[in-house]
Amino acid sequence: MKWISFSTFVPFFIGALEVTKGLITLSSLIVLVQLANNLFNPILQITQLLADHYSSEPIIEKINYLKSKSSNTASGIQLPKTDLLKNLVINLNKNICFSNGLRISLDKNYNFTLADKILVVGPSGSGKTTLLKSLCGKYGIYSKDICVTNKQENSNLSSLCMYVTSDNAIFPGTILENITLNNDVNIYKLKEIINTLGLKAMVKYSCKCKSINLLSSGEKQRIVIARALLLSNKYFLFDEITSAVDRGYTEKIRKLFFSLDGGFIEVAHKIGNNEKKKYDKVIVLRGKE
Fold it and tell me: Which residue in 5, 48, 130, 238 has a CA-CA distance of 20 to 30 Å to 100?
């Protein structure tokens, strides 16, 4: 926008000086300014499109790599949509030790299954995000502090989980491309999700994500949620995923969460006591040590 304003201002300023000197008429000045805009604006638009293209290349390459990898190897354990979920039990010790010496303190020991809907609460800096990241393998942890048990076999906990945060990437392209990542998807599931999340109009009119700054924080979060729910069947770890979403959409989003075949864990700050009662368990963090 700065360059567009500059390209308009310079010829106008110079022309205004010429008008005051009587060298050109005001109508001629208006024509010259219009010609300058017609010349510079397409050039600036092409420059912006090239910048968008080059900035999105690393993300596209990463997506293509992950897609090719998943087609050749197992990308992780997909959750069974049966009562077998109740056989997968996660155990959390009251004090969780990490390889770097960091400790997270809970109010007690916890155990829950992958069929449970779990809420994690605690003061800022108590380690809620650290706990979620550790569950999906972001930190080295002692097996005695966080482990998963199965009546039939031991499972790799990180392969079962998908960490979802508002910091997940939004890249230049249409809203639909950001949601589907150009995968073949279930069209009925897609329609249900975008309708519930209020993204139908954005998808219908092929809104571009040319500038991430043009999207509100709430819109970004809704796009990230839609992508996760559409493309994955893993055990979701939602980290403050509705923090920028208004109350109306937050309620709709939580209804989607609770409609999942499996369970999930959600970290949330602003949540009322009545909402807490809907979860199977509420994990309380005391802080880091």
Answer: 238
